[in-house]
Amino acid sequence: MTNIRRDSPSLLPKADNVQQLVSNSRLKIACSNCNLRELCLPVNLSMGEARLLDEISQLKRSYGRGDYLYRSGDKFQSLYAIHRGSFKTQVLHEDGREQVTGFQMIGEIIGLDAICTDHHACDAVALENSEVCELPFNKLEALSRELPSLQRHLHKIMSREIVRDQNVMLLLGSMRAEERLAVFLISLSQRFAARGLSPTQFHLRMSRQEIGSYLGLKLETVSRAFSHFQSNGLISVHTRSIDLIDLPSLRAFVGKQQ
Amino acid sequence: MTNIRRDSPSLLPKADNVQQLVSNSRLKIACSNCNLRELCLPVNLSMGEARLLDEISQLKRSYGRGDYLYRSGDKFQSLYAIHRGSFKTQVLHEDGREQVTGFQMIGEIIGLDAICTDHHACDAVALENSEVCELPFNKLEALSRELPSLQRHLHKIMSREIVRDQNVMLLLGSMRAEERLAVFLISLSQRFAARGLSPTQFHLRMSRQEIGSYLGLKLETVSRAFSHFQSNGLISVHTRSIDLIDLPSLRAFVGKQQ
DNA sequence: CGACCAGTTTGATATATATCAAGATTCATG
DNA sequence: CATGAATCTTGATATATATCAAACTGGTCG
User: Fold this and answer.
1) Which of B84, B109, B138, B186 minimizes the number of CB atoms within 10 Å of its CB?
2) SS3 content of chain B, % helix, strand, coil (to 5)
């Protein structure tokens, strides 16, 4: 709440990411003070321990829709905690094909893909006006050697990402188009609920094409599935405004399809 | 090489996994001595540091084809390093659908999915006679607080798993059947090569149905794709024996399909 | 050795989703 | 407020893969 804006020219983003130069701003933010404490990194930390985290995450950057937080191939420096807004991550194949691998929202940590090679393995793109807290990974590792509960939390975050990805594999590998969309909507619903937002009424931040890429479908198929759910009274859609009218039936729909 | 067989009845596997009672044996194994040092955990460790690892990974267990290393829902205790043989991991949906999420081979670490909830999120099943080194996670975490290079290595292993999964998503979400199989074969080839085995001639440890589950295809489609590659002179298949006759063309095939 | 059984191959047909195309709606901008 | 561009919806058709079915293969075991 009491974030202090500041400028630190010595920490300008890399020159190859020109958009960032325009849209980035920097803000001091204190983990010990942040209203995302439950969602984000500092769990089970004493106030004193949380202040140690403050030391390493004082930079906040903002991005506009379409801005890249990082690109595939960028040198790895930091993880990012999403403080406001949302992002998509996508992997690109040489031949130009792209696959959206996830949508990330407030309180989620992004950038874990880069640890293994020291270079990012995917792009992260803002879906709306967004802010992230930068967490220099070296400092995070050093601190997690001191604070076992932070260490465990970091491990849990990475493990959760693995489990999530495996569930997407299940979805892509064995579900039909409408089931995939139902699972997607239910998952969004849960994530909004976990953030104190409505689990039934929300605004999609991504296009039909982006949803389709994530779900392994063409945008027309996504659109048809939305329309079909609507005509069955399961949901109400107006472009990107969603109302999950009959969430139980939507849940029951998944798996019913043999 | 100088592993000493021993029995420790007090450490019998859990009673709900009867098969293990039959097929498990326990062997002392020393990381500092292991010929998998490069592939597995102990990287960049001094001899003294590697001996610390010995302390936590002295149990080796064996499994026969079809045995479960762990099941979805099992309480999380340990990670496992595959010392010999191979495993598959699979997630099961309530409705009975299953999806193979990966095939793991010698030197790879398995069980990372369980950290986030303290319970395993998938099954791990031996594909052949196999041995694993058990790595109690609490001890591994404690040691990695002392040894920064072990800590970093653990992070890299988890990150690598995330990247791998994202590449499977790309495969499942945007590639055609034959491309998926080509990617699968190329990936196996690379992994065999990294272990000093032939990158072109190998024996598949999994059935057509398991390959199909992993690739989001039916077994008949997998079989047809094998036959088609063979009739094009890219590979030679005899049931589970594979010879990648023209690996460059196989690589070029991926992506050619728009 | 022979019979069986699980796994594999191959063929014919069905079907879900992609593709192509045209309008309709929403959004950004001057 | 009007214009154009992007996004979304819907329809007609094409196509890749699933499904169903039958024959073949290889290994196991009495």
Assistant:
1) B138
2) 45, 20, 35
| Residue A235: exposure state from Cβ atoms within 10 A (0-12, 13-18, ≥19) | buried
A235, two tokens: 């949901």
CB atoms within 10 A of CB B132: 27
Q: Is the CB of A220 under 7 A from strand D?
A: yes
Q: Where are the beta strands (DSSP E) in B64-181?
A: 68-70, 78-84, 86-92, 98-105, 109-110, 123-126, 130-136
Q: Does residue B122 belong to the interface with chain A, where contact is any CB pair within 8 Å? A: yes
Q: What is the pLDDT of residue B19?
A: 37
Length of chain A: 258
User: CA-CA distance, B212 to B223, in Å (whole number)?
Assistant: 9
DSSP A119: B
> Is this prediction's pTM over 0.70?
yes
Q: What is the pLDDT of residues B61-76, one digit of tens each?
A: 999 999 999 999 999 9
**Contact list, B111 vs chain A (CB under 8 Å):** none
In angstroms, rounded to a whole number, what is the distance separating the alpha carbons of residues A180 and A176? 6
CA of B16 to C1' of D12 (A): 56
